[in-house]
């Protein structure tokens, strides 16, 4: 019986969800521009207006890829090496 219930969890259902209109990055940044209370709350968290980076300038650099599997030694891939160095290994 519990198996049937688990299968029901994955069956499609109609939620009537309708996403809102698309907004640009700047529109989302300025949604609460006139809300002084929210601005002060964000500043208390260390977030200042204009702190968010532009979406076209990502600053994420992945340096390592680590695989951890219970009962096996970890595999650590140093992604700072060039492809030629990996071919030698």
Automatic annotation (TrEMBL):
Alphabetized Pfam families for the sequence: Rho_GDI
UniProt main location, coarse: cytoplasm
Biased composition (Acidic residues): 1-10
An annotated GO BP: Rho protein signal transduction
Keyword annotations of the record: Cytoplasm
InterPro entries per record: Ig_E-set, Rho_GDI, RhoGDI_dom_sf
Region Disordered, annotated ranges: 1-32
An MF annotation (GO) of this entry: Rho GDP-dissociation inhibitor activity
Gene3D superfamilies the record matches: Coagulation Factor XIII, subunit A, domain 1
Recorded GO CC terms: cytosol; membrane
Compartments, as annotated in UniProt: Cytoplasm
Plastid in keyword set: no
Signal sequence interval, chain numbering: none
Similarity section: Belongs to the Rho GDI family.
PANTHER family: LD16419P, RHO GDP-DISSOCIATION INHIBITOR
Protein name: Uncharacterized protein
UniProt organism field: Lunasporangiospora selenospora
């Amino acid at each position: 019986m519990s198996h049937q219930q688990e299968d029901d969890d994955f069956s499609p259902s109609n939620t009537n969800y309708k996403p809102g209109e698309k907004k640009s990055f700047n529109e989302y940044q300025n949604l609460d521009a006139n809300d002084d209370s929210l601005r002060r709350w964000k500043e208390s968290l260390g977030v200042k207006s204009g702190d968010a980076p532009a979406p076209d300038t990502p600053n994420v650099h992945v340096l390592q890829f680590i695989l951890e599997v219970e009962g096996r030694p970890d595999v650590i891939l140093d992604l700072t090496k060039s492809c030629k160095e990996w071919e030698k290994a």
